[in-house]
Design a protein that fits this description.
The complex is a heterodimer of chains A (about 725) and B (about 160). With about 725 residues, chain A is α+β, with helices and mostly antiparallel strands. Chain A contains 29 helices and 25 strands. Chain B is mainly beta. Chain B has a single domain, classed as OB fold (Dihydrolipoamide Acetyltransferase, E2P). In chain B, the strands form two sheets. Chain B has a six-stranded mixed sheet. In chain B, strand 1 and strand 2 form a beta hairpin. The longest helix of chain B is centred in the N-terminal third of the chain and has 9 residues. Classes of the chains: A alpha+beta (about 725), B mainly beta (about 160). Chains A and B meet through strand 24 and strand 25 of A and strand 4 and strand 5 of B.
């Protein structure tokens, strides 16, 4: 059975579920009695098992199955949650992660049976339960339905013929009293569908997201196990209109027909036998073509993998015939197998809100219209009127700007995707180091460019580990110092202007500057004299040098001397910067500043002595005209007093070593730039205008100049340099 | 030269050189290091760069650093003329590099025995020259050692 076409979807969703499980288990550890959490865990584990099973990953299925067994015991209250069990769960998640990695790299789950883990899981079960495991399985499997405590009984035919037991009926009545409605659905799957269970599973999930499936025929477990012919019946309680449900199911491909209607309860309708004509089911036969073209859209949340964007051909026809399957299918099998473990598989996907895609599509159509009107206004034989062309160009400009914004939006993902694995990490570190600590994350919804977010994981992890290991003191020291014995680490993300700030803070010991100074001398990094002259800040900057670790003891967690320099290099490669603030005894904070988007920025073009420079708008505060007499000198440096703020003047003409003579003028134009809390005024000769530019790297030959962050090519082919205002302050 | 010629070059120990002019001197650059030759164009100066790095140009949408061979080799500053060209070199380090030359004259083929290695010549100072080629017509061409020419220094 060929399931490779579902592989990407499977990987995506599995990762989500594993992450969800991890979050929930963390929550469970804090709050072992919380029924909602346990149910959520159970659901996620069950879904995982189902998905792994349909995809034929039996090892993964076995492991999740055994996890599910334990969860079930926990849910029924027969097993108490202890930290030991939590540990086992986490190692199971790691094992699952490994399977997923293997699948991503090779399309195979690998050969690790994880028997020890399974044994540990079984050890967790109360003794008498382990023996009749086989029988237990069936019961377990049917469990998700039991959430509502309403086991469904099997019966033949359509929804109104389904025999419902009293519990279900009373639940339906209650739901109706609450204003919800109860519908019956009958789903028919196409005959040629290869993977009925997978489709049925998608249907169940899609419906499950919109309401509660309280009964089905056959049972949901049988449906998932493909124990049905071509159709199955569901009874659903939901507050959404029936049309929504039907639509969501129709969006799933290879569904031949969906019918649905309001469920007639025996009491109401008298007899359950026939459906009155009034209640005629809304029928939704789908032409085969349409289902095909719906392709792999996983619809449920109106999201589709971004691979469709980057590689439109690859997504459109996954359901098409073998030969027509482009790159993707062929490559999935062959390439992925070839890719060695540990390497990222070729296709990286983001989920994108379908609305964003619609917006993109709209803009692209506008772009085409704009192109056409330019073509017609220049080609139609008559002399193109200048204003007409100009209008069209303005229109084009507007469209491209919007298009750029939209694409950027699509590329933006919340940093949550990296931060959500940190609580677990901190928990593990806390255990390992035997320190008590708590991680507080805020602003995880802050969005950054996908490429940036992907690269952020490692540096942040280094910083967090650093805080946990070196920053926070051990418990008794904390008590001695009168601090809360439980250490706190904060990870705050927020947006400032056009950049995003991520701050890792701890209330630990802070950086011992004297210790760093000593160490630096010891290592020969600096001489004694240098050490005496260096400011505290300069000393702290030494920490970012390669192979400089002050940890007195090398631990497993950190202290190997790799880390901070890597952090710095990484952040700088993302055109960001790292800053440290530290107070001995009170803690330190590491501040990372990152540009929100890469590649294309808005700038102000200025002229300095005949040369053109671009200053990023994001760092510009204001533009002022300053009278020559207003310039004062403080410590031999020129400053101006601008509405109460004294800021240094930077004469770009001198700093950039522009050649030629200079005539002092009465008035000068000053661009006020800011970096965090600091300001500076850049003296320029001429304002040229605002321009959207594409950043080009300068290459290694030009690294010498700190003030220049890159270059750009202007409309006339000339190259202009981009000033890094931060470096000038 | 055609493909057959190239083959011959490898087999028979022959090398092709682009002959360039810097002031009154002639130098040869191994064709295998040359990516492209473009006309002189406006160069954007980059501040705080070593003197010999003249600036950057736009080469078909990419930014290319350009250096002055004259300044690097201790000659007078370039005077841009009609015949001034930028030779785009493939460097061993990352990225390409443009060098400004006064004129590109021709391509010559030299056999191995026509080339004297610089070790035999005992030149003083910076050895930009890896060897000297003697042509049949008696001309002498200094062959540039590109790994030295393109080497970064903070002069």
């Amino acid at each position: 059975m060929d399931v490779s076409q579902y592989l990407d979807m499977f990987l995506d969703e599995t990762k989500e579920h594993i992450q969800n499980l991890s979050d929930q288990i963390m929550r469970l550890e804090e709050n072992p009695e919380d029924a909602d959490t346990i149910n959520e865990i159970f659901r996620a584990a069950h879904t995982l098992k189902g998905m792994a099973g349909t995809m034929g990953f039996t090892r993964m299925q076995t492991l999740t199955h055994d996890m599910e067994n334990v969860f079930s015991e926990v849910r029924s209250g027969r097993l108490k949650v202890q930290s030991q069990i939590i540990d086992v769960f986490f190692s199971c998640l790691d094992a699952l992660d490994e399977y997923v990695q293997n699948i991503q790299n090779t399309s195979e789950e690998g050969t690790n049976d994880n028997e020890d883990l399974i044994k540990k899981l079984n050890d967790c079960l109360p003794k008498e339960e382990t023996a009749p495991e086989k029988k237990e399985e069936k019961k377990e499997a049917a469990a998700p339905k039991a959430e509502a405590d309403m086991p469904a009984e099997n019966a033949g035919g359509k929804w109104n013929e389904l025999k419902l037991d009293d519990a279900v009926i009373s639940a339906i009545k209650m739901a109706r009293d609450d204003g919800d409605e109860c519908y019956g659905l009958n789903v028919v799957i196409q005959e040629k569908c290869l993977l009925k269970a997978a489709r049925a599973f998608l249907v169940l999930r899609s419906v499950g997201e919109r309401g509660e499936i309280i009964a089905s025929n056959p049972s949901t477990q049988d449906i998932e196990d493909e124990k049905f012919d071509r159709d199955f019946t569901l009874i659903v309680i939901t507050d959404l209109p029936l049309e929504d449900l039907l639509k969501s199911i129709r969006n799933i491909s290879e569904i031949e027909n969906v019918t649905g209607g309001v469920l007639m309860l025996p009491e109401k309708a008298g007899e359950t036998v026939e459906q009155p004509a009034k209640e005629a089911p809304v029928s939704a036969p789908l032409p085969a073509k349409e289902t095909e073209s719906m392709g792999s859209v996983p619809n449920a949340q109106g999201e589709i993998p971004i691979a469709a964007l980057q590689n439109p051909m690859a997504q459109v026809a996954p359901a098409a015939k073998e030969e027509t399957k482009p790159q993707r299918e062929a490559s999935t099998k062959e390439e992925k197998k070839a890719v060695s473990a540990g390497k990222h598989a070729g296709n990286r996907t983001i989920r994108v809100d379908i609305e964003k895609l619609d917006e993109l599509m709209n803009l692209v159509s506008e772009l085409i219209i704009a192109k056409n009107s330019i073509v017609s206004s220049t080609q139609s034989g008559k002399v193109a009127s200048k204003s007409n062309v100009k209008d069209n160009i303005e229109y084009l400009e507007r469209v491209t700007t919007n298009l750029h914004e939209s694409v950027m939006k699509v590329r933006m993902v919340p940093i949550e995707t990296v931060t959500n694995k940190f609580p677990r990490m901190i928990r593990d570190i806390a255990k390992k180091l035997n320190k008590k600590m708590e991680l507080y994350i805020s602003g995880e919804e802050t969005e950054l460019d996908r490429t940036v977010v992907d690269e952020l994981g490692d540096p942040l992890m280094h910083l967090l580990r650093n805080s946990a290991d070196h920053g926070l003191e051990s418990e008794d020291v904390r008590i001695k110092r009168g601090k809360n014995p439980v250490g706190s680490i904060f990870l705050d993300a927020y947006q400032v202007g056009n950049s995003v700030v991520i701050e890792v803070r701890d209330d630990g010991n802070g950086i011992d500057i004297e210790a760093v100074r000593k160490k630096a001398i010891e290592r020969g990094t600096i001489t004694q004299e240098q050490a005496e002259q260096m400011t505290d800040k300069e000393i702290i900057d030494l920490l970012f040098l390669p192979s400089f670790s002050t940890a007195k003891q090398v631990t497993d967690v950190s202290g190997r001397g790799v880390g901070l320099d890597v952090v710095k290099a990484k952040i700088e490669s993302l055109s960001g910067e790292v800053e440290v603030k530290s107070r001995l005894g009170e803690g330190s904070s590491w501040i990372i500043r990152l540009p929100m988007t890469l590649a294309i920025i808005q700038t102000l073009m200025v002229g300095v002595g005949g040369e053109k420079y671009a200053i990023p708008l994001s760092s510009i505060q204001s533009i002022e005209t300053i009278h020559h007499g207003d310039v004062k000198t403080v410590q031999n440096k020129e400053v101006i007093n601008l509405r109460g703020i004294v800021l240094p003047l930077v004469r770009l003409y001198d700093v950039l070593e522009v050649e030629g003579n200079r005539i002092p003028e009465e008035e000068m134009t000053v661009v006020v730039v800011r970096k965090g809390e600091r300001y500076a005024g850049l003296v320029i000769d001429e304002l040229i205008g605002q321009l959207e530019i594409v950043i080009k790297p300068l290459g290694k030959y030009s690294k010498q100049c700190k003030f220049i962050s890159g270059a750009t090519i202007l409309g006339d082919g000339e190259v202009a340099l981009i000033l890094d205002a931060n470096a000038l302050i | 030269m055609d493909a057959a010629g190239e083959k011959k070059q490898d087999q028979a120990g022959m090398n092709q050189f682009i002959v360039i002019r810097l002031g009154s001197e002639q130098y040869g650059i191994d064709v295998r290091n040359v990516e492209n030759i473009v006309r002189m164009q406006r160069i954007t100066r980059v501040p705080k760069m070593p003197k010999y790095l003249t600036g950057i140009i736009n080469l078909r949408g990419e930014v290319l650093p350009v250096m002055s061979l004259r300044i690097k080799m201790g000659l007078e500053k370039d005077v841009y003329e009609k015949k001034t060209r930028i030779i785009v070199l493939k460097t061993q380090q990352e990225g390409n590099l443009g060098v400004i030359v006064d004129e590109v004259k021709e391509v010559v083929t030299l056999e191995n025995e026509q080339v004297d290695k610089v070790d035999d010549l005992k030149l003083e100072g910076k050895a930009f020259v890896s060897g000297v080629g003697k042509r049949e017509n008696g001309d002498i061409i200094s062959l540039l050692d590109l790994s030295v020419v393109t080497l970064e220094d903070n002069a």
